[in-house]
From TrEMBL:
It is a multi-pass membrane protein. It is found in: Cell outer membrane. Residues 10-317 form the Porin domain. InterPro entries: Gram-neg_bact_OMP, Gram_neg_porin_domain, Porin_dom_sf, Porin_Gram-ve. Homotrimer. Residues 1-23 form the signal peptide. This is Porin. Its main location: membrane. The lineage of its organism: Bacteria, Pseudomonadati, Pseudomonadota, Betaproteobacteria, Burkholderiales. It holds the Pfam family Porin_4.
Length: 342
């Protein structure tokens, strides 16, 4: 190797070293630990009550996140997120499929034009409900909106998010990855949201191809909602419709969720929130249920809070179904716990 080649290699090594120093990925580990005790009446047709801890998080989900971002220059960044869910009471996974990164796992780019991410991530409807739900997706094991948010998460998903003035546009397509068909098992959606001063409103639409028996059917999901904030007061609500077209083989299914509520901050550390959630189904024999819930949060710090909630659910029909798993006419619940974000 001549001296010119050696000098060239040395220069390239210095450039590579400087570039690596300037463009290193910043990686963070963070998450939530939520532990609580819940008492619930009428947990079975015999009318028994139950006091228990086992949960994936009452006030918010227990999760461990590894996220990172690299500044690429010109306002462009590359980023990723891996999110693992766990049961704090037992240490077990929060799912029955033994999937470690079951909550989220995606990578993407973000610039002035918006962001695009690829992997397992929340649906557009989930993103929007976060603003319209009075509890902002707290108490997800109790409130019916998580199960109703068009699947909550899509795997194999490409999602675009762009902000234009006061508007946010989201587009997504999840690949079904079924041999011989681009539509079977797939999903796609669009959502538009407006953010004003103290006011948010928007709507979203998702269609996914779901397996019903041995045949794929179209499931359509619609969401509209609004949220208002004035001083220490906040009010929000929305309407959700989920339908499955069974193409004449059976009655089409239609599940509706209507919800609303509000919150008031007594101080920076003390907040009261209350909400009402109505679910109706055209095919479930329980036909529907109404849930009323109120929760009080007391912040010990910016990351740690104590919480207590009371809830009552009334079923239209006392029969064991997917909507009424206990077969009860009504249930009363109370949960107390501690939530810490790290």
């Amino acid at each position: 190797m001549n001296h010119q080649s050696a000098r060239s290699l040395a220069v390239l090594a210095l450039i590579a070293s400087a570039t690596a120093a300037q463009a290193q990925t910043e990686v963070k580990i963070f998450g939530t630990a939520d532990g609580g005790v819940r008492h619930l009446t009428h947990v079975n047709p015999a009318g028994d009550s139950k006091t228990f801890m086992g949960s994936n998080g009452w006030n918010s989900s227990n999760k461990l996140d590894i996220g990172g971002a690299e500044q690429l220059g010109g306002g462009l960044d590359a980023h990723f997120l891996l999110e693992h869910g766990f049961n704090l009471a037992t240490g077990a996974l929060d799912n029955t499929t033994n999937t470690f990164w079951q909550r989220q796992a995606f990578v993407g780019l973000k610039g002035s034009w918006g962001s695009i991410d690829a992997g397992r991530q929340y649906t557009i409807s989930h993103d929007f409900i976060l603003d319209y739900d009075p509890f902002h997706f707290n108490y997800t094991p109790l409130i019916p909106l998580t199960q109703a948010s068009s699947g909550t998460r899509f795997s194999n998903d490409l999602k675009y998010v762009g902000e234009f003035g006061g508007f946010k546009l989201e587009l997504e397509n999840a690949f079904g990855e079924v041999a011989g068909s681009n539509s079977n098992g797939s999903a796609h959606g669009v959502g538009l949201q407006y953010y004003g001063e103290g006011f948010t409103t928007g709507a979203s639409y998702n269609r996914r191809s779901v397996l019903v028996g041995s045949v794929y059917r179209d499931e359509d999901y619609y969401l509209v909602g609004a949220a208002f904030k004035y001083g220490d007061w906040a009010v929000s609500g929305g309407y959700m419709l989920d339908t499955i077209d069974l193409e004449g083989t059976a009655p089409n299914t239609a599940t509706r969720n209507t919800f609303g509520g509000g919150g008031y901050s007594f101080t920076q550390n003390l907040k009261l929130t209350a909400g009402f959630y109505r679910t109706t189904s055209t095919t479930d024999k329980a036909r529907g249920k109404d849930m009323t819930i109120a929760g009080l949060d007391y912040l010990l710090s910016k990351r740690t809070k104590l919480y207590v909630e009371l809830d009552r659910t009334k079923y239209k029909t006392a029969v064991v179904t997917a909507l009424n798993t206990a077969g009860a006419s009504n249930q009363m619940g109370c949960t107390v716990g501690i939530n810490h974000r790290f």
